[in-house]
Amino acid sequence: MSITQEQYFTYVSILKRELVPALGCTEPIAIAYAAAKAREILGDFPDKIVAECSGNIIKNAKGVIVPTTKNLKGIEAASIIGAVGGDPTRGLEVLSNVKEDDVEETRRLLEQNICETKILESPAKLHIIIKMYKGNNYSLVETIHTHTGIVRVEKNGEVLLDVPHDVEAEEDSDINYDLLNVEDIVEFANIVDISEVEEVLAKQIEYNTAIAKEGLRRPYGANVGATLLEVYGDDIKVRAKAMPAAGSDARMSGCELPVVINSGSGNQGMTASLPVVEYGRKLDCSDEKIYRALCISNLIAIYQKSGIGRLSAYCGAVSAAAGAGAGITYLYGGDLGQISQTITNTLANVSGIICDGAKSSCAAKIASSVDAAIVATMMSLRGKAFAPGDGIVKDNIQGTVDGVVRLAKEGMRETDDVVLKIMVEK
Fold this sequence. Notes:
This protein has about 425 residues and is of the alpha+beta class. It folds into 2 domains: about 25-160, CATH 3.30.1330; about 180-425, 2-methylcitrate dehydratase PrpD (Orthogonal Bundle). It contains 16 helices and 8 strands. It has helices at about 5-20, 25-40, 55-60, 75-85, 100-110, 180-190, 200-215, 225-230, 235-250, 265-280, 285-310, 315-330, 335-350, 360-380, 395-410, 415-425; strands spanning about 20-25, 50-55, 115-120, 125-135, 135-145, 150-155, 160, 260. The strands form 2 sheets. A 6-stranded mixed beta sheet has the order 3-2-4-5-6-7. Helix 1 packs across helix 11 (about 285-310), helix 10 (about 265-280) crosses helix 14 and helix 13 crosses helix 14 (about 360-380). It is globular, with a radius of gyration of 21 Å. It starts with a helix and ends with a helix. The model has no long low-confidence stretch (mean pLDDT about 95).
């Protein structure tokens, strides 16, 4: 066995940390969570809310419906509904208990303009500071790097929580994500005791399948998933694209069903899982085989995103789809070389897709990315591959992934700024 005991338990821990339920798009949910916590600390309902958010939070919260609000969008709506009806003990399911009266109160408070938003000038891509005021009292909650990563809490000048953190770092973590690599991920998937990961993977299948089916049943967003099935039929290649796209259709339009996320993103959680599930069922694979394939798909997605960061100008559907392609290749009996080549083939094709925030077109980007992953799978299973020197392709999978990380973090830094400027222009 090449994988060490440390790696084994780290990989199990990563899956349990990353594959958690979330209700709605995670950026407005992160705002609502911080607001719910700030309201709890204040101990009274505020007269004024100030929400300071980094550019990438603004980009991803601007155009998506806040779940449970029917049709409200934006940072102000997320902040107010979090204060009105949010339960901070529920984490990324903070809005699970919101009632109709809470939504109506949020509409009223939006009209009163009690919430002010500001761009937070921060090197951190994911950074939120919520301040609430009631008379002479105030509270402050600061979140950085992760959607529920509260690092500072204040009330009336007293610091109640101050977690040491590096604002320049992508993420502070007690888990060593540097232990992830393709060879050991595949080895882990082959040997893992399924009982140690079954709970999180079964929930991922259940939740993500449910919202995808909801997205096919009802008109959400641009109905990308339903359109694919209507136009191209019920072939497995179409279903593998349509299911995560339909889940995104529903999720971006405020559907109140939860998803199990990957790398902080519901869209990435659905992209990494649902194509694998569809192929697993088509190929009559056992539940155990599907779980092992999901270990590969999820960890490959996390492996890439741990270098890129949770938020960037690089569309996360690409890294998630590359993971899904790796999982599908495994279901077909592909070996390590073929799995690695599937990842490379996917990244060589669609690494240029930009992230311009959370909104209905995410579903189409998911479909395009999964399509590229399926092409990559079929190529690798037939011994066909993009060669080293073909653009960003290197002579090994680690080199190719490292190059994509550089592309996303360094090459697309200015792209990120330009995308945000375009989005906020009137």
